[in-house]
Specification:
Layout: H1 11-25, H2 27-41, E1 47-51, E2 57-61, H3 63-72, H4 78-85, E3 93-99, E4 102-108, H5 114-121, H6 125-139
Parallel strand pairs: 1-3
Antiparallel strand pairs: 1-2, 3-4
Helix pairs in contact: 2-5, 2-6, 3-4
Length: 141
């Protein structure tokens, strides 16, 4: 490959770009969902995640599972554990994207803050989940 020539987009990176685009387009809805789930469960279920297999859907990633994975990959995802430990749900959104043997973090501070996004959308968590999962399925191949 010559300097400056474009690199081919591999399948493994396609889902990352699609997930980034999904998060960008749905910032407010993801913030609302994140806060609504936090109100229902706190951190008792773990960190919100998006599992892309067999089709994109939301899941919880228990901290113990993230710790076990970190041990299994010789502490290569230690930074993710630090972000999970310091997550401030009233100010920021944290979602772990789970692809084929890879992880991707969605981590941002929305404007307005998650509690305000949730109040402004004025819908329940299940409706938000269904709507976002439908959008995920359309956007991520």
């Amino acid at each position: 490959m010559f300097f400056g020539s474009p690199r081919p987009h591999s399948q493994e990176n396609t889902w990352r770009r699609q997930l980034d685009q999904f998060a960008k387009v749905n910032q407010q809805e993801l913030a609302a969902l994140s806060w609504g789930l936090w109100l229902e469960n706190g951190d008792s279920q773990g960190t919100l995640g998006i599992n892309l297999k067999p089709q994109p859907h939301f899941v919880y990633c228990p901290k113990s599972a993230i710790e076990t994975l970190n041990d299994n990959v010789e502490n290569q995802i230690q930074e993710i554990l630090g972000i999970v430990d310091n997550h401030q749900p009233e100010k920021e959104v944290l979602i772990i994207g789970i692809g084929s043997e890879q992880l991707k973090l969605i981590h941002y501070e929305p404007e307005p803050a998650p509690p305000i996004c949730y109040a402004q959308l004025a819908t329940d968590v299940n409706t938000l989940l269904e709507r976002l999962e439908q959008d995920l399925s359309k956007q991520i191949s």
